[in-house]
Design goal:
Shape: globular
Strand content: over 45%
Largest sheet: 11 strands, antiparallel
Number of helices: 1
Structural class: mainly beta
Bound molecules: protoporphyrin IX containing FE
Distance between the termini: 25 Å
Number of strands: 14
Radius of gyration: 15 Å
Number of domains: 1
């Protein structure tokens, strides 16, 4: 297991959620804006900006592009994950996304996950963060129809980005 992490944010979202979608007869998915998905259903969001991130302190925000949407249940289910960003603070890290409630302007952010930074290494001039465990924040509970409680584990996130 030494596959190189491509540049960007790689995230499988939540394995059981993708399993649910795979079982849903009318589920649909769109992956646009430079994002991609691999055969293992890991989504890659491309790097956007490190302007608000300090390589020296390791604090600040790394922004990514891309847009991943899921729909199903005859239009009653809709989940949109757009322009994720990871903010590192002295105590940890947070994953935010464009707040779907602010669609179509997308001028607000939603703090979706708490992350546990697990260190990083220099990888051919880019910073490779060790996979970060994640847990749903209270602000993100409604996005998944209140099915998962705050603290629910989501898939780990891997980042490789030139800083
Ligand atoms: C017509 C409305 C809906 C019906 C009939 C429905 C039905 C179900 C059923 C039967 C399950 C359990 C399925 C399984 O484990 O395979 C489930 C789980 C779930 N549903 Fe829905 N649902 C509906 C709407 C929604 C909406 C609007 C959302 C918003 C995102 C949603 C998100 C979820 C999630 C996150 C799970 C848990 C998946 C997991 O991790 O196992 N559902 N739903």
């Amino acid at each position: 297991m030494s596959a190189t992490v491509p540049e960007g944010l790689m995230w499988g979202i939540k394995k059981s959620f993708l399993g649910y979608l795979n079982r849903m007869p009318d589920a649909r998915m769109s992956v646009t804006g430079g994002a991609s998905v691999d055969v293992r259903q890991r989504f890659l969001f491309p790097p956007d900006s490190v302007d608000d991130f300090s390589a020296e302190s390791g604090e600040g925000t790394i922004r990514f592009g891309g847009d991943v949407r899921f729909s199903g249940h005859h239009g009653m289910m809709f989940v949109m994950l757009t322009a994720p960003a990871v903010t590192f603070t002295p105590g940890g890290a947070t994953l935010s996304i464009a707040d779907p409630e602010s669609y179509p302007v997308l001028d607000r952010r939603l703090d979706l996950l708490d992350l546990q930074p697990a260190g990083w290494t220099d990888h051919h001039g880019a910073r490779l963060f060790a996979p970060m465990p994640s847990a749903l924040r209270a602000e993100g509970v409604a996005l998944f129809n209140d099915v998962y409680p705050a603290g629910e584990p989501f898939d780990t996130l891997s980042i490789r980005v030139a800083v």
